[in-house]
């Protein structure tokens, strides 16, 4: 089949690589425009754009898929299908029927669970034991289209969202190729999603990544792992500056620390929660690189009594917002 691959971040690269190695022809890629990144804030093409350019594949970077020049080029290319992996923009309804087999989205959950932009992060934070990936036909609505195929993946006890997404991106690439192969052979029909078991996974903001030490250690642990590497969990120091947090280790035997109370020893830094303490791993002081928590505590010259996150402990849990959409999110 003639394909236009739609994707933007590095997590989409395994799928692009798998399609390039498949029997199908990738005639172009659709990706988000270059964005500013790094200390110099210079414009950088997306990982998908860089990979496609290296292969000599045409790169389409409309500011919006509503761009008329882009739509005209899409029609000229006449794709049989548009496989989609984390493209990051809404596809207008009038474009959904343009490819013969439609837009085939690889989503990193077993639908209808965790519809939305951050399914892996929410699965980790919710304490799910199993998640997976689905290929489905993009339609008007938020990840509501009929499903072609699924796979499952165990969530390991110490998985971060980044760990889990890395495995799913590789396994999902194989699922995407199998789906396109079967569509070309005419042996696959999508199945409507069930009406129950629906959960939403909206994008996580920096605010969502604030740690509430008044929550039990298990919830603190899951939130931090779910927000690693992005948007990055954090708490605040008594002076109001932020301290980024890498994954922590629950310490059930330590129960005498108040929520947010920091206890710095020579080799470890413990923080109290609503249940028991957690041991800090890497931390990221404002304006500095990540470092071991004990090394940070020695150099920070902390006062004898330190309470982390006083403001966030006082105002309760942060909401993660609601997902809504009237067009297809790719």
TrEMBL record:
CDD domains: FMT_core_Met-tRNA-FMT_N, Met_tRNA_FMT_C. Residues 204-300 form the Formyl transferase C-terminal domain. It comes from the Bacteria. InterPro entries: Fmt, Formyl_trans_C, Formyl_transf_N, Formyl_transf_N_sf, Formyl_transferase-like_C_sf, Met-tRNA-FMT_C, Met-tRNA-FMT_N. GO terms for cellular component: cytosol. Signal peptide: none annotated. Keywords: Protein biosynthesis, Transferase. NCBIfam families: fmt (TIGR00460). This is Methionyl-tRNA formyltransferase. It comes from Cellulomonas denverensis.
